[in-house]
Amino acid sequence: MRIGFIGLGRMGANMVRRLLRDGHEVVAYNRTAEKTKEIAGEGATGAFSIEELVSKLEKPRAVWIMVPAGDATEAQIDELLAHLEPGDTIVDGGNTNFHDDRRRHPVLKEKGINYVDAGVSGGIWGLANGFCLMVGGEPEPVKRLEPVFLSLAPQDGYMHVGGPGAGHYVKMVHNGIEYGLMQAYAEGFEIMHASDYELDLEGISKLWNHGSVVRSWLLELAERAFANDQDLTHLKGWVADSGEGRWTVQEAIDKDVPAPIITLSLQTRFRSRQDDSYGAKVLAALRNEFGGHAVKTE
After folding, report:
1. Could you tell me the pTM of the whole model?
2. Which pairing describes strands 132-136 and 114-121: parallel, antiparallel, or unpaired?
3. Is 149 helix (H, G, I), strand (E, B) or coil?
4. C-alpha dist (Å) from residue 94 to 1, 89, 184, 266
5. Which CB contacts under 8 angstroms, 24+ apart, belong to 195-201?
6. What is the DSSP letter of 63?
7. Is pLDDT above 80 for 173?
8. What is the CA radius of gyration of the chain?
């Protein structure tokens, strides 16, 4: 199948490589021309403008957008619309808020453009292991693009989960769960790191992946992280979030669903970005005021 691909970052470039390996023809564009040239050297057809990309695709065209969610994706869709025609399809593979999908779908449908949302999980390991794909959209354009989805995903790693927005909705909740899992592992390993025992955290990570009910790919990654320095002295405990955890918590609030673990794991990420929490200072001051408890001063 021939498909256009916009965005050649860490995941995007590997997705193109996986498609090329499976015999698809990819017309690739990236804002930075060097990345376009690099992937063209590996078998893709390079395009150095959106107009050129569209011109090199056969009708009905399909273009996959893999750029940061929000303004960048909106701008890319607007630019594409100046060149696409009725019957063409846009696939948004970024971490878009499902509310944006629901807004875009009817607008594009009025213009005769199909819109498919694809939640993508797999990170930098997707080239070797495949990308888990949670796809939303109307049945006809999704079915037409299935050869692409099946090439990107490992066996049983692709599913058409529902109508417009459903793909990104499922991916949002997926990432919320990921927050909770990572936080539980982090707390457990911190307890063991503080233990009086001299524990081999790399070895324990490996051990737990053999028959334990907590075995997972995240534990395999923990094993890798602990391999050289289990004290992780080369890292700063500053943890970002890309938005999906916040959206999951908001959806839980909107639907009156209790989600304390995901909520607290998100809040813990916020705390990680504070070198010295003002809230903690207030707690120390109050304890000192009512009980004369000791405080540390700068």
Report:
1. 0.92
2. antiparallel
3. helix
4. 21, 16, 26, 20
5. 200/230, 201/226, 201/230
6. E
7. yes
8. 23
